[in-house]
Amino acid sequence: MMLLTLRLRQIIQDYIRDRIFLVALVLILLSMGIAFGVIAASVLEKDQQRELVRFVNQGLHGEDFLQSNIYARQTVVSNLQTVFFLFFMGISVIGVPLALLLIFARGFILGFSTGFLFQTMGYKGILLTLTGILPHNIIVLPALLIMVVAIMDCAAALTKIRFTKKQIAIGEEMIRCAVITLIVILLMVLGGFVQGYVTPFITTWVGRII
């Protein structure tokens, strides 16, 4: 078991090292999205802040909740739709910019949410970030980053074949992309269940305390 774990770690390290430029590009876009999200949260007007705080408090202390199984199912379906969207964007090549835009948008949402909670709710915002935003994003965000790197790699190989006529093992590239997609699907399903069951439970519990 330990040998398998070490081998898997080595494969992941080699994959990232060989595509360090793509990884850096995706991380930069994510960081930019987070930064712009934080800035957007900081320039909200007072009325907008009060309205959003009211909405957050209503969500924490209100009774209008979706059942966990319904919410989890909706989240899993949404996550899977995102994975298949990214996969087909990579195959089409021209859809890669949309995949990068998705990463930026995810970063913006994350930055806006955490920035708003920190700025308006203080330590309560920190607790809500740790319980309501962090748990599922620990799984979902890395999975999305890996998926985008994989489809960019695949799209680059397809582009080389189309325009340079270089001999590239496209079958190997497609298989690698498909395997990564399957792994990401598993992670996104897991993240959906965490977001549907674990996150609401912890957030509700924290809401009672604060």
UniProtKB/TrEMBL annotation:
Keywords: Membrane, Transmembrane, Transmembrane helix. InterPro entries: SpoIIM, SpoIIM-like. The chain crosses the membrane at residues 20-44, 83-104, 116-133, 139-158, 179-198. This is Stage II sporulation protein M. It comes from Hydrogenispora ethanolica. The lineage of its organism: Bacteria, Bacillati, Bacillota, Hydrogenispora.
